[in-house]
Design goal:
The complex is a heterodimer of chains A (540) and B (317).
Chain A: H1 6-18, E1 31-36, H2 51-60, E2 65-67, E3 74-76, E4 79-84, E5 90-95, H3 109-120, E6 141-148, E7 151-156, H4 163-168, H5 177-183, E8 197-203, E9 207-212, E10 225-230, H6 234-243, E11 248-250, H7 254-260, E12 266-272, E13 275-281, H8 291-300, H9 303-310, E14 315-317, H10 341-350, E15 357-364, H11 373-385, E16 389-396, H12 398-406, E17 415-421, H13 427-432, H14 452-463, H15 467-484, E18 487-500, E19 503-504, E20 520-521, H16 525-529, E21 535-536
Parallel strand pairs in A: 1-10, 1-11, 12-21, 15-16, 15-17
Antiparallel strand pairs in A: 2-3, 4-5, 5-7, 6-7, 8-9, 9-10, 11-18, 12-18, 13-17, 13-18, 14-18, 19-20
Helix pairs in contact in A: 8-10, 14-15
Chain B: H1 2-29, H2 34-39, H3 45-54, H4 61-73, E1 79-80, E2 85-86, H5 87-122, H6 127-141, H7 144-158, H8 177-211, H9 214-221, H10 226-263, H11 269-278, H12 282-310
Antiparallel strand pairs in B: 1-2
Classes of the chains: A alpha+beta (540), B mainly alpha (317).
């Protein structure tokens, strides 16, 4: 009896067993499989702060206010209409009738009050279902009153123009009070809202499954099921998309997006968001106290080339402190003259550095919205070398980096890279450009920029109830900040999504959220074979 | 024998105490904390302090460690801040997939490694031996994550025979064993190859020794058929020599699953630990490391016991 001849037979049998049905398996037509960048933290919209989770939440829940499609402007959602008192302190919301949560309980003014009080009132019986890290979005809320079942009144303690945008942010999504009472601290794993999809199942590390909510009062969702899969490794997301295990994937690396552009059977969608990637300059210590040196740096850096060559078109050049996605408040064409190394050298000589100078830049190795920080830093180092500036780069892990930079730039740091995603033009200037927002006062003004004129404009815009007046203040602020150059504002992130071409009715919003109620699949060969067409969201 | 097992199990206690103390200390020294990770750019000192006190992070770490130990005695590993759920649930939910992957990889690596080692020893210094030695060298030197990417590219993207990642097909409500096997193949193979290389290399040396031993030569002299000598008499000797190596490799497989789990999105402990460290989720890291350390010690104990059973000479110690 011999063993040897049997071995190949056994191996062959194993292969046949493993490969039984070894054909490419694709998701069914009524199901959309989304490749997410991480495992969700919580599906409680007041608890989580991650964009990754928000993309699931906006399909499960609705807020009083949402974003008008393609913009960052507040639009009616669970509130059909609202009025604001002349002093900007009282907001009356008229609620949509006949709305029910997924658990069957009715949505009404009591539910709205429960939502605010759970978050804001430490004495509320369900406040312990937190913590609620972004509750400060609503810190101006003094009281929420139930006028009648379909009217709710919110009183603020001071005029606060960003209130409506904050309501449109996922922190303002309305949860079912009955479900919070039932699940307590585990509500985030048993979510219930009023959105077009209801929660079915969450298998940690594998998937979150949602199904079409048949009781949705609006137009029902086209797809029967949504499945969100965490695929944390970007190369694996690309491979899964090509292997057919995902219908769409988000936040692919710039190289891969370029590879999918023009590839048969795929579609690349892009939208520029309310994001800024900038360098904070140390205006308190070192050579950057001199505005001429700051201007020289700004002129020396070739932002077009950074965006085109380093980020490969996954970002757009930005200029002012108000991202262009807030089209009503931003100034177009700031600093559009482009790089000017000659003028930069002249400015440096004028400021007393004809021989050039040495500077130190802090960068994180990665992090939320930081794009490709090390590659960006290296390119900036090259640009500055051309005007005689010797830039040393020091890199940190993201959490360590935040701790270091948020504490303020010391004498050892002249520049630091930073990125912000905001939901209102107020957020970033208020937190990071005011004299009262220095790190020692608990703010994020890590470069110590202080101009009372800028403070006055920020405050004026914050209190204005008229949007034209707000816009004028923000535009004046942008011009002032451009003249003072406390930051070198480089780019706004253009978010990407790559989908199989059969996926239709998809739109990337400037908010970067992903509402999928109008999405469907068309298993049409003509569609599948068509070349992918870059398709950009309207608000730019 | 039972005294030996009890002795080894008792040794587990100081090991675990040491491991958890080190994890707690190191995680407390690393800059950044969960509050910073949650609030990100919004983390003002005031808000951070508030969130830290709500999460119980404002006490000194030795105090928190003692509190954690107290909870452990009652079977409570605390609550994960990055997953918003009890650590015990999170860890136990991820343990099964890790053991499955590491177990499959161990089986594969032992089968492949032994086959390669025996083949090389039988054809000592001939072409087959050189080919096997080269293959083994490749297996040891190729980084498993890189190999994993290549396997995904070949079998999932180009050929479309096997899924690229995950443990089951996410859109099937009741994925069966066949689906699981299809998902298990590539990660288990990439994880197994390095261990197979190590086992093959040491297995070859062991087999050369064993095949030259007196009792094997006696078997052959008495006319017992070659395969029978090999499978019954020689294999036992080779396995006994290999057991400590296999035990160590099993430990490495459980730990090495970290990379492979990330590339193949395997829902196991390793991937969870990587995310937990990035989120500075101390209690989750602690729970995961605790379970891995227990698994490591138990696997090595099992390997030792198996060796005693295979090789009577080691039993007296």
């Amino acid at each position: 009896m011999s063993f040897a001849p049997r071995a190949p037979a056994i191996v062959g049998l194993c292969l046949v067993l493993v490969c039984s049905g070894c054909t490419r398996q694709l998701p069914p037509a009524d199901t959309l499989v989304v490749g997410q960048v991480a495992e969700p933290r919580s599906l409680d919209p007041q608890v989580t702060t991650a964009l990754n989770d928000f993309r699931i939440l906006v399909n499960l829940y609705e807020g009083l206010v949402g974003y008008r499609s393609g913009t960052l402007e507040p639009a009616p959602a669970l509130a059909r209409s609202w009025t604001v008192s002349d002093d900007g302190l009282v907001y009356d919301f008229g609620l949509r009738p006949g709305v029910r949560f997924h658990d069957g309980t009715p949505f009404d003014a009591d539910a709205v009050r429960f939502n605010f009080e759970r978050m804001l009132d430490p004495a509320h019986p369900y406040h312990d279902t937190g913590p609620f890290p972004l509750a400060f979005f609503f810190e101006r809320v003094e009281r929420v009153e139930v006028v009648d079942p379909l009217t709710v009144r919110v009183r603020l303690d001071a005029p606060f123009a960003p209130f409506l945008s904050n309501l449109a942010y996922p922190t303002g999504l309305i949860v079912s009070p009955a479900a919070v009472r039932r699940w307590g601290k585990d509500f985030g794993r048993h979510p219930s809202g009023t959105g077009p999809f209801r929660f079915v199942d969450w298998e940690p590390g594998r998937r979150v499954e949602l199904a079409r909510f048949d009781g949705y009062p609006g137009e029902p969702a086209a797809l029967a099921r949504l499945i969100f899969r965490p695929v944390t490794d970007p190369m694996t997301r690309v491979a899964e998309l090509m292997a057919g295990g995902l219908d769409l994937a988000l936040e692919l690396p710039p190289d891969s997006v370029s590879a999918f552009r023009g590839r048969r059977g795929y579609r690349v969608l892009e939208a520029t968001g309310p994001h800024l990637w900038f360098l904070i300059l140390n205006t308190r210590k070192g050579p950057l106290r001199d505005v001429r040196v700051r201007r020289a740096l700004d002129l020396a850096i070739d932002k077009q080339s950074l965006v085109r060559d380093v980020l490969q078109g996954t970002a757009e050049v930005a200029a002012g402190p108000i991202p262009a996605a807030f089209s009503w408040a931003a100034v177009a064409g700031l600093g559009s003259a482009g790089p000017g190394p000659e003028r930069a050298r002249a400015l440096l000589a004028e400021a007393g550095h004809p021989e050039g100078l040495q500077l130190r830049l802090l960068v994180p190795r990665g992090g939320s919205g930081m794009l490709s920080p090390l590659a960006m830093a290296a390119a900036i180092q090259g640009d500055l070398a051309r005007v005689g500036i010797d830039l040393a780069i020091e890199s940190f892990e993201w959490n360590a980096y935040l701790a270091r930079v948020n504490a303020g730039l010391d004498a050892d740091a002249d520049l630091a890279a930073m990125a912000w995603m905001t939901n209102d033009p107020d957020t970033l200037p208020y937190l990071a450009l005011r004299c009262d927002a220095l790190p020692e006062q608990g703010g994020f003004n890590s470069g110590y920029y202080c101009n009372p004129e800028a403070d006055a404009l920020i405050e004026q815009a914050r209190r204005a109830t008229d949007r034209t007046e707000r816009a004028r203040a923000y535009q004046a602020l942008a011009r002032l900040v451009h003249a003072d150059r406390p930051w070198i504002i480089v780019a706004s992130w253009r978010q990407n999504l790559v989908s199989r071409a059969v996926v239709r009715g998809l739109r990337l919003e400037p908010s970067f959220f992903l509402r999928l109620n109008h999405t469907y699949k068309q298993a049409d060969d003509a569609v599948a074979g068509r070349r992918s067409e870059p398709h950009r969201a309207a608000a730019r | 024998m039972s005294r030996y097992i009890i002795h080894r199990l008792l040794l587990l206690l100081p090991v675990l105490l040491g491991v958890t103390l080190v994890v707690f200390g190191v995680m407390s020294l690393v800059p950044g904390d969960p509050a910073l990770a949650i609030l990100g750019p919004y983390g003002t000192p005031e808000r951070l302090a508030e969130l830290r006190s709500e999460l119980g992070l404002d006490r000194p770490w030795p105090v928190r460690y003692l509190g954690w130990l107290g909870g452990l005695l009652g079977g409570d590993l605390g609550r994960s801040v990055s997953l918003e759920r009890p650590v015990l649930d999170a860890v136990l939910g991820r343990l099964g997939p890790t053991l499955l992957l590491a177990g499959a990889a161990l089986l594969l690596s032992v089968v492949l490694g032994l086959a390669a080692g025996l083949l090389a020893a039988l054809r000592h210094n001939r072409t087959a031996d050189r080919l096997v030695t080269l293959a083994v060298l490749l297996g040891i030197s190729l980084p498993s994550f890189w190999l994993g990417l290549l396997l995904i590219l070949l079998f999932a993207v180009w050929l479309g025979w096997l899924p690229a990642s995950g443990m089951t097909t996410v859109w099937l409500d009741h994925a069966g064993a066949a689906d699981l096997m299809r998902h298990l193949t590539l990660p288990a193979l990439s994880l197994a190859l390095v261990a197979a290389g190590v086992i093959g290399r040491i297995g070859r040396a062991a087999a050369i020794d064993v095949l030259a031993a007196d009792h094997i030569r006696l078997c052959r002299a008495r006319g017992i058929a070659g395969p029978r000598v090999l499978l019954v008499h020689a294999l036992k000797g080779v396995l006994a020599r290999l057991m400590p190596v296999i035990g160590l490799q099993a430990g490495f497989l459980i730990g090495g699953a970290v990379y492979i789990e990330t590339i193949f999105q395997w829902p196991g402990l390793g991937r969870m630990l990587v995310d937990a460290i990035a989120a500075r989720d101390l209690l989750l890291v602690q729970g995961g490391v605790l379970v891995l350390a227990v698994a490591y010690v138990l696997v090595n104990l099992a390997a030792d016991l198996f060796q005693h059973w295979l090789d009577p000479r080691t039993r007296t110690t």
